[in-house]
């Protein structure tokens, strides 16, 4: 089963202040979409920060919201977003390996670095990505 926002809060007690923050819940839901999970894992698989796969999209989401309750200029909030990514891709067997700068070509507005992940055969898994070829 995909990770839920409540699991993110349970695993990260120091983020409990976001529990009733509807914009943080919306951001978690956005990061949890299949499209975003695939992008994050694709970046992880090539040795780049997983967040780099979606960072421009979430920055655009943030800037398009009026009176957004998510402050990407706050360091703790940015770390919370990283913890969200960790919570979301962990069920697929990905574990944090190191922190790395965002690729320069992305020209991110708020995020300068993020965690890199590797697939770990030994890590507990509840989800997997399946690619299939089917005849039309």
Describe this structure in words.
The protein is α+β, with helices and mostly antiparallel strands and 136 residues long. It has five helices and two strands; from the N terminus they run H-H-H-H-H-E-E. The chain has helices at 5-11, 22-31, 34-45, 55-64, 75-89, and strands at residues 94-101, 113-119. Strands 1-2 form a two-stranded antiparallel ribbon. The longest helix has 15 residues, at 75-89. It is globular and about 45 Å long. The model has no long low-confidence stretch (mean pLDDT 97).
Q: What's this entry about, in short?
A:
By secondary structure, this protein is an alpha+beta fold. It has 5 helices and 2 strands.
Global mean pLDDT:
97
Give the low-pLDDT segments.
none
| Global structural class | alpha+beta
Sheet with most strands: 2 strands, antiparallel
Q: Tell me roughly what share of residues is in helical segments.
A: 25-40%
Q: In sequence order, what are the helices and strands, one letter per element?
A: HHHHHEE
Strand content: 5-15%
Radius of gyration: 15 Å
Tell me the total number of β-strands.
2
Shape: globular
Number of helices: 5
Q: End-to-end span in angstroms?
A: 29 Å
Going across the biggest sheet, name each strand in turn. Answer: 1-2
Oligomer: single chain
List the helices and strands and how they pair.
Elements lengths: L4 H7 L10 H10 L2 H12 L9 H10 L10 H15 L4 E8 L11 E7 L17
Antiparallel strand pairs: 1-2
Task: List key phrases describing it.
single chain, 11% strand, alpha+beta, 40% helix
């Amino acid at each position: 089963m995909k990770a839920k926002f409540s699991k993110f809060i349970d695993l990260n007690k120091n983020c409990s202040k976001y529990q009733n923050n509807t914009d943080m819940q919306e951001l978690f839901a956005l990061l949890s979409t299949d499209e975003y999970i695939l992008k994050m894992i694709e970046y992880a698989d090539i040795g780049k920060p997983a967040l780099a796969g979606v960072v421009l999209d979430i920055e655009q989401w943030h800037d398009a919201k009026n009176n957004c309750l998510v402050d990407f200029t706050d360091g703790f909030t940015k770390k919370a977003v990283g913890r969200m990514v960790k919570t979301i891709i962990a069920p697929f067997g990905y574990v944090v390996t190191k922190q790395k700068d965002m690729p320069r070509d992305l020209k991110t507005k708020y995020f300068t670095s993020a965690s890199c992940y590797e697939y770990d055969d030994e890590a507990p898994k509840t989800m997997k990505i399946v690619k299939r070829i089917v005849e039309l």
